C-alpha cells in the first residue's frame, strides 16, 4: 500500500539542507542509498553525510545523490576529548587525505576491540551477544547504539535508554571507553583534509561554556541549529558565533527513520550552507 502521507515531498526539492546525518557506515539505521531516498521525500536539496569516524559511505552517498539531484557534502563527525568530556567535531566539504583515512581506520579498529571487551563484560552479567550478531562491514564505526539495539531486540531491555542506564552508559557496568583524539588533533585532521570544522551540538555535550576555548583552538564554526537546542539556546549560540567570528551550521543528526528527529529538522535554509561553501572557497582556495 502506498503511504499517502509521504506521497508528496515536503516543501519542494532544494528548499532545505541537512548538514548532520548518519548512515550504516556508523550507527545510523539507513544505508546511504536509503538515506538519500528519505532526503528526497523531505525535499532536501543538499545533505552532508557525517558518519562517526568514517568517510567510507561517501562514495555510495554521492552516487545515490547524483541520481536524485541532491547535493552531497562530504563530511565526518570525529569523537574527541576535551577536559575529560566528549567533544564531537564535524568536518564539512572534506577531501579526505591519506593521514585522515589511516587515523579513521585506526579508530574503527579500536572501536572493534572495544566492542569485544564490552561483549565480554556483558557475558559476565549473563547477557550473551555474539560478535556476529553485530554489523560487520570492513569499513565501519561500531558504536554503543548498535549494542543497545541488540539488547532491545533480544529482550534484555525494554527501551534503548534502559540499555544505556543499566548496562552501557558512561557509568554502566559494561561500559568501556573508546580512544578519542584531542580537539587539536581532530581539528588538524579536518583542516589537513581541507575541511571546514565545527563544534557539534554544544548544547547536547555540555560544551556551551567553552566556546571561547574551542575558538582559540582554531575551530571554524559551531553547530547552532540542532533538534536538542531550544530556541533560546540557538539565539545565544548565534550571538556567540557572531562575537567569536565563527561560522554557523546545523542539522538533524538523523540516525533512524523510526525514532529520533526526522531528516531536515530543524529547518535549515540554504543560506547556511552557502556561507560555509564560500568560506571553503576562501580558505582552501577552491577554484
Ligand atoms: P559510542 O560512540 O560508541 O561511545 O556511542 C555514543 C553514542 O551513543 C552517542 O553518540 C549517542 O548517539 C548514543 N548514546 C549515548 N548515551 C545515550 C543514552 N543515554 N541514550 C541513548 N543513546 C545514547
Ligand atoms: Zn551516532
Ligand atoms: Fe554527535
Ligand atoms: Fe551525530
The percentage of residues in β strands lies in 15-25%
List low-pLDDT spans: 1-12
**Average predicted confidence as pLDDT:** 94
- The radius of gyration computed from the alpha-carbon positions, rounded to a whole number of angstroms, is 19 Å
**Count of runs of 4 or more consecutive helical residues:** 10
Query: Count the strands?
Result: 8
Largest β-sheet summary? 8 strands, mixed
Helix coverage percent: 40-55%
The coarse overall form would be globular
Distance between the termini: 48 Å
Structural class: alpha/beta
Bound molecules: adenosine monophosphate, zinc ion, fe (iii) ion
The string of secondary-structure elements, in order, is: EHEHEEHHHEHEHHEHEH
Blueprint (SSEs and pairs):
Elements: E1 16-21, H1 32-41, E2 44-49, H2 58-67, E3 71-82, E4 85-92, H3 98-124, H4 144-153, H5 160-168, E5 181-182, H6 183-192, E6 196-199, H7 202-205, H8 211-217, E7 221-225, H9 231-244, E8 247-250, H10 270-283
Parallel strand pairs: 1-2, 2-3, 3-5, 6-7, 7-8
Antiparallel strand pairs: 3-4, 4-6
Helix pairs in contact: 1-2, 4-5
Residues 20, 22, 77, 253 line the site of one fe (iii) ion.
Amino acid at each position: 500500500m502506498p503511504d499517502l502521507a509521504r506521497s508528496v515531498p515536503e516543501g519542494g526539492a532544494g528548499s532545505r539542507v541537512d548538514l548532520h546525518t548518519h548512515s550504516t557506515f556508523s550507527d545510523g539505521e539507513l544505508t546511504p542509498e536509503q538515506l538519500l531516498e528519505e532526503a528526497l521525500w523531505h525535499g532536501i536539496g543538499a545533505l552532508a553525510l557525517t558518519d562517526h569516524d568514517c568517510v567510507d559511505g561517501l562514495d555510495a552517498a554521492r552516487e545515490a545523490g547524483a541520481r536524485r539531484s541532491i547535493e552531497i557534502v562530504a563530511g565526518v563527525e570525529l569523537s574527541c576529548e576535551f577536559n575529560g568530556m566528549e567533544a564531537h567535531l564535524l568536518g564539512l566539504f572534506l577531501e579526505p587525505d591519506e593521514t585522515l583515512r589511516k587515523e579513521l581506520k585506526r579508530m574503527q579498529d579500536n572501536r572493534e576491540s572495544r566492542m569485544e571487551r564490552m561483549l565480554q563484560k556483558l557475558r559476565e552479567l549473563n547477557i550473551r551477544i555474539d560478535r556476529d550478531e553485530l554489523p560487520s562491514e570492513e569499513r565501519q564505526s561500531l558504536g554503543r547504539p548498535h549494542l543497545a539495539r541488540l539488547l532491545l531486540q533480544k529482550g534484555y531491555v525494554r527501551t534503548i535508554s534502559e540499555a544505556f542506564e543499566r548496562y552501557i552508559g558512561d557509568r554502566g557496568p559494561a561500559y568501556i571507553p573508546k580512544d578519542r583524539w584531542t580537539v587539536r588533533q581532530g581539528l588538524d585532521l579536518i583542516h589537513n583534509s581541507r575541511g571546514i570544522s565545527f563544534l557539534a551540538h554544544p548544547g547536547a555535550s555540555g560544551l556551551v561554556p567553552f566556546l571561547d576555548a574551542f575558538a582559540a583552538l582554531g575551530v571554524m564554526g559551531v553547530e547552532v541549529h540542532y533538534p536538542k537546542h531550544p530556541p533560546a539556546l540557538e539565539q545565544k549560540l548565534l550571538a556567540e558565533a557572531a562575537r567569536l567570528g565563527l561560522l554557523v551550521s546545523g542539522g538533524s543528526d538523523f540516525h533512524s527513520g523510526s525514532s529520533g528527529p526526522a531528516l531536515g529538522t530543524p529547518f535549515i535554509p540554504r543560506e547556511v550552507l552557502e556561507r560555509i561553501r564560500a568560506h571553503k572557497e576562501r580558505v582552501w582556495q577552491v577554484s
